[in-house]
Specification:
This protein is of the alpha/beta class. The protein folds into two domains: 201 residues, NAD(P)-binding Rossmann-like Domain (Rossmann fold), CATH 3.40.50.720; 37 residues, no CATH class. Helix content is 48%, strand content 15%. It contains eight helices and seven strands; from the N terminus they run E-H-E-H-E-H-E-H-E-H-E-H-H-H-E. It has a seven-stranded parallel beta sheet with strand order 3-2-1-4-5-6-7, sandwiched between helices. The relative contact order is 0.14. Bound molecules: nicotinamide-adenine-dinucleotide. Nicotinamide-adenine-dinucleotide binds next to helix 1, strand 2 and helix 6.
Length: 255
């Protein structure tokens, strides 16, 4: 029997990250997550005490070093690293955006990926195997009016993924990105409200815009994303690397 996969997930306390954590745990994997929100970590521990949870902000290198040192002690390495953390950033025309908000969005979406991949690459190169999965977005595949910081950050995630797929491929390490469409849940409800506030549109009209450009006229669920990640981390995907995988019902346009 194969040893259980050792899986590390950023922003795993809630939303997509929590679904990823529970799905990998259900396969028998050993799972560690970090999250900036202590209450989300406590809630996850109640749902599934076997998942290792730590409070860490992915933009803080000391937090990440402490989290990953704990993972080293507990697991002795990693087989699957999911760089999932990201925040939506400000909405609005570029001339109205503030530099600090731009920086915070770029940092929240990219720093955790950088720090997690840096650590995972050391382990995975040495063991000559591993799967890294970064969470981008359909915003990393299209232009996205009024959301320039987020779109820029998520295209950046694709750049990191493509580059690491080249760097780590010779060591048998695969690197891929998942691009969720609009996911049912709290976060999209917040996004809809923010966008409605800057465009002056109704929240329900804004919701319809998100479905309008999707061929399958649907949002997606956190379970859809977990299924995609389980596949990418599995032997069934053993020759898949450098791939941008949309999980979105096929987005034709974000505008
Ligand atoms: N929800 C969507 O519709 C959607 C669509 C496309 C892409 N994404 C991407 O998927 C990923 C997860 O999104 P989600 O919807 O689950 O988010 P979410 O807003 O539900 O947050 C999930 C968790 O991330 C944590 N978090 C936020 N900032 C953090 C930080 N700096 N350090 C550590 N943890 C942090 C939060 O505390 C929360 O528990 C993000 O990268 C997001 O950009 C989401």
């Amino acid at each position: 029997m194969n040893a259980p996969q050792r899986v590390v997930i950023t922003a795993g306390g809630a939303g997509i990250g929590r679904a990823l954590a529970l799905a990998f745990h259900a396969t028998g994997a050993r799972v560690a997550v970090c999250d900036i929100d202590a209450s989300a970590i406590a809630e996850l521990a109640e749902i599934e005490p076997e998942i290792m949870g730590r409070v860490a902000n992915v933009t803080n290198s000391d937090d990440m070093a402490a989290f990953l040192a704990d993972v080293d002690t507990a697991f002795g390495g990693v087989d699957v690293a999911l760089a999932n953390a990201g925040t939506g950033g400000p909405a609005g025309p570029i001339e109205k955006l503030k530099l600090d908000d731009w920086r915070a969005c770029i940092s929240a979406n990219l720093d955790g990926g950088f720090l997690l991949c840096q650590w995972a690459a050391k382990h995975m190169k040495a063991q000559k195997s591993g799967s890294i999965i970064l969470t981008s977005s359909t915003a990393g595949m299209f232009g996205y009016p009024m959301r320039s910081p987020y779109a820029t950050a998520k295209w950046g995630v694709i750049g990191l993924m493509k580059t690491l797929a080249c760097e780590l491929g010779p060591y048998g390490v695969r690197v891929n990105a998942i691009c969720p469409g609009a996911v049912e849940g709290d976060r999209m409800e917040r996004v809809l409200k923010n966008e409605a506030a800057v465009t002056g549109r109704d929240v329900e009209d804004t919701r319809q815009i998100y479905v309008k450009g999707v061929s399958m006229k649907t949002w997606v669920t956190t379970d859809d994303l977990a299924d995609a990640a389980l596949f990418l981390a599995s032997p069934a995907a053993s020759k898949i690397s450098g791939m941008v995988m949309p999980v979105d019902g096929h987005t034709e346009s974000l505008t």
